[in-house]
Amino acid sequence: MTHPTHPDLLRRSIALTFGRRTSRNVSRVEGSLSETFMAHRSALARFLAIRCGGDVAEDLLQELWIKVQLSDAVIEKPLPYLYRMAHRLVLDTRRGASRAKDREHSWSITSGAIEDAEAALAERALLARERLQHIEAALGRLGARAARIFLRYRVDGVEQRRIAEELGVSLSTVEKELRRSYVALSGLEREPDEG
Q1: Whole-structure pTM value
Q2: Which of 26, 29, 77, 194 is the most exposed place for a label (fewest CB within 10 A)?
Q3: Contact 21, 72 (CB under 8 A)
Q4: How far is CA 20 from the centre of its chain?
Q5: Alpha helix locations (H) across 19-53?
Q6: What gap in Å lies between CA 11 and CA 116, rounded to an integer?
Q7: Is the separation of the CB atoms in 171 and 179 below 8 Å?
Q8: CA distances in angstroms from 90 to 65, 73, 84, 100, 164, listed in the order given
């Protein structure tokens, strides 16, 4: 590979390779944009402070200075260009803050909805467990045979005739125990909630 011999190509190659500007580029840019920045630094600082506050203005002024140093464009009217750059930095900062606020708002709504749903599910599960405990207690007060008949019929779905055969009792006994269970459980519906 041959190396460029022309001085401008060599300077540009070095600048691209090492991330530095050559003396010719620096003098051309700093002679206009950097000098204008330094001459009008306090006015630019006031411009930024009016639009976004003192602390942010200093950060933006520093960012503007870095952009000026990195720029290698030739600017015919550097002062309006600097003000336009400063204005765009303000807009970018406001957009970023607005997006961050929107993201935070969306997240708070989403997380709030999730927490509400989780709380509702947890509350429903707690109420269901309490209800099951009340049902088990009511069936327990009726006796083991009544509880077994009720569970085999209502939970397991076994026919009354088959339950009677399994337990060695008559069909009317199974029906009588189911009626007692229903009466006991309907009494749970009429009891007021404690709490």
Answers
A1: 0.41
A2: 194
A3: yes
A4: 41
A5: 23-29, 35-39, 41-52
A6: 64
A7: no
A8: 14, 22, 10, 15, 85
